[in-house]
Design goal:
Layout (H helix, E strand, L loop, with lengths): L4 E5 L6 H10 L3 E4 L1 H8 L6 E2 H5 L14 H8 L5 H9 L7 E4 L4 H5 L6 H6 L4 H11 L5 E3 L5 H11 L4 H31 L11 E6 L11 E5 L12 E4 L5 H14 L6 E6 L2 E7 L3 H11 L7 E5 L5 H7 L4 E6 L4 H7 L6 E4 L12 E6 L2 E6 L11 E2 L7 H14 L7 E5 L2 E6 L5 H12 L7 E4 L7 H9 L3 E4 L6 H11 L2 E4 L8
Parallel strand pairs: 1-2, 1-4, 2-3, 4-5, 11-12, 12-13, 19-20, 20-21
Antiparallel strand pairs: 6-7, 8-13, 9-10, 9-11, 14-15, 16-21, 17-18, 17-19
Helix pairs in contact: 8-10, 13-14, 16-17, 17-18
Length: 516
């Protein structure tokens, strides 16, 4: 079906003049609303105002422009339906064969600082979504155009064939319905946040857009893609990062990078976090970033192979030189010195990720969502800060100030390790990590087996309570001097007695950190 008449009403006017000139050259009549019409007329394009068709002016400060039966009957009439065509002919309504429309910039508006509520309200589009949905519903007869990137291909098809085939029309309709659905979801979520503040409502709409297409997912036989939240999260995260060099990020790279970034947000001092299979294998803070790297790497010198290393300070030449000595998949930092980039660029496949403000420890409240077959799980982000005033010393031996500070560091580390997990630290560095085990005693055994003599006089943290005393016995045998754990087991007395028997101090934090 040839296009004879097009209605255009766009907020984003990028490339619209070129597109409309192309349609005009093909002899297509152009109908437009006020703002768009005035813009097009400046380029001497012949335009018919919507008000000329409807015999009604735009009213209510532009809130009502296209909401009229003459417009919607022209869009929705099924051309092969004799009753439809007889009806519009009876009322002298002309068919509209193309609708070109994008919506008021609601998402851009709510990003503004100190935005007034009235401006938010006036950037909720009413006529636009209605036009788009009407055209998409009647896609067999009406071409619906919602994206600037569609202009060239549509114009090319019209120039070559005088029409679009049914598959092209179907794809445009799909994108149109998605366009309005995402738009409505942004409005819905913004209103809930501002007016209701119910973080886990009965119904939830999520808007996403493709950020990266991947060669495959978790395994080569699985397809994978990375979607970015709409609106974007306004804090340092993997979706806001910039890749400076190297291969495309893989599905697993992104999971690991997310873990690395979220772990780093726990620490104020210069810190290095090393991740392997979405769990830390070394964490250290130090006033010298190079020493932080040395200490984190010393925790486990073989697991970082093929892993991810992240820093919350700029990487300099010395650190780059050390990183270049081992095989890594990804390096993340808020910046890189010129010489550091030169050194690391020699590893062509190494992915260098820059994430500004990573050193500012920005971590906002919100929700996280995980999928299961048939549904999604959602919960609040775990951003609760450690409060030492809630801690309770439960053993005869009292930990000193330095040990309490090390406990705080240890808790920040164990929070990001896969459960069941334990971590052993000295000062502000991990010396052994045990995680991802089905029994807590196994996590303790693995960590002490890896840490060996480094465990002596260390601090142990557990992500959850000890159900039996066996984990305490394993730690004590390795030389641990103090333990912090949430407490809350029916066998807490048994565990406390074990600590007392071994002369170990123990603190109950009252805060669990499961990570599945």
């Amino acid at each position: 079906m040839n296009v004879k008449r097009a209605l255009v009403s766009v907020s984003n006017k990028e490339n619209i003049i070129k597109f409309i000139k192309g349609l005009d050259k093909l002899g297509i009549e152009i109908i437009s609303t006020g703002g768009t019409s005035n813009y097009l007329k400046k380029s001497k394009i012949k335009i018919k105002e919507v008000s000329e068709l409807t015999n009604y002016p735009e009213m209510l400060n532009g809130r009502v422009k296209t909401l009229n039966p003459i417009i919607y009957a022209g869009i929705l009439a099924i051309r092969e339906n004799k009753i439809h065509m007889d009806t519009i002919n009876k009322f002298n309504i002309q068919p509209i064969d193309m609708v070109i429309c994008n919506l008021y910039p609601f998402e851009e508006t709510i990003k503004k600082q100190n935005i007034k509520w009235n401006e938010v309200i006036e950037n909720i589009d009413i006529g636009g979504p209605t036009l788009i949905r009407a055209a998409a519903k009647n896609y067999k007869d009406v071409i619906v155009v919602t994206n600037v990137k569609q202009y060239d291909s549509i114009l090319k098809s019209l120039e070559l064939n005088g029409k679009l085939n049914i598959r092209q029309r179907e794809k445009l309709a799909i994108e149109a319905f998605t366009h309005t659905a995402i738009y409505d979801s942004i409005i819905s979520n913004y209103f809930r946040e501002k007016l209701d503040n119910e973080i886990l409502p009965n119904k939830k709409v999520i808007a996403l857009k493709k950020l990266i297409s991947m060669r495959y997912g978790e395994n080569p036989h699985q397809k994978g893609i990375f979607y970015k939240s709409i609106p974007e999260i306004l804090e340092p995260c993997i979706s806001n990062s910039v890749k400076l060099q190297g291969k495309d990020l893989s599905y697993n790279n992104i999971l690991d990078s997310d873990c690395a970034i979220e772990s780093l947000k726990e620490f104020n001092d210069p810190t290095c976090v090393i991740i392997k299979h979405a769990t830390p294998c070394g964490i250290a803070s130090h006033n010298n970033l190079l020493n932080a790297w040395y200490n984190a790497y010393a925790t486990d010198t073989y697991s970082p192979f093929g892993g991810i290393v992240s820093f919350n300070r700029e990487i300099n030449e010395e650190i780059a030189d050390e990183l270049s000595k081992i095989f890594l998949e990804v390096v993340i930092a808020p910046g890189y010195s010129k010489n550091a980039l030169k050194i690391l660029s020699e590893k062509k496949n190494l992915r260098l990720i820059m994430l500004k403000d990573l050193n500012k420890k920005i971590c906002r409240e919100g929700i996280i969502i995980r999928s299961v077959v048939g549904g999604f799980l959602s919960q609040e982000r775990d951003v609760k800060k450690i409060n030492k005033n809630e801690w309770k010393i439960v053993t005869k031996k009292i930990p000193n100030k330095n040990e309490l500070n090390s406990m705080e560091f240890a808790v920040k580390c164990v929070k990001h390790i896969k459960s069941n997990s334990v971590v052993f630290v000295k000062d502000t560095k991990t010396v052994a990590i045990g995680g991802g085990q089905t029994a807590r005693v196994d996590a303790a055994w693995i960590a002490t087996h890896k840490g060996k003599i480094n465990i002596k006089n260390s601090i142990m943290a557990s992500d959850a309570f000890f159900p039996f005393r066996d984990g305490i016995d394993v730690a004590a045998e390795a030389g641990v001097k103090a333990i912090i754990q949430p407490g809350g087991s029916i066998r807490d007395d048994e565990v406390i007695n074990a600590a007392n028997e071994h002369g170990i101090s123990m603190v109950f934090s009252g805060q669990r950190y499961f990570r599945h």
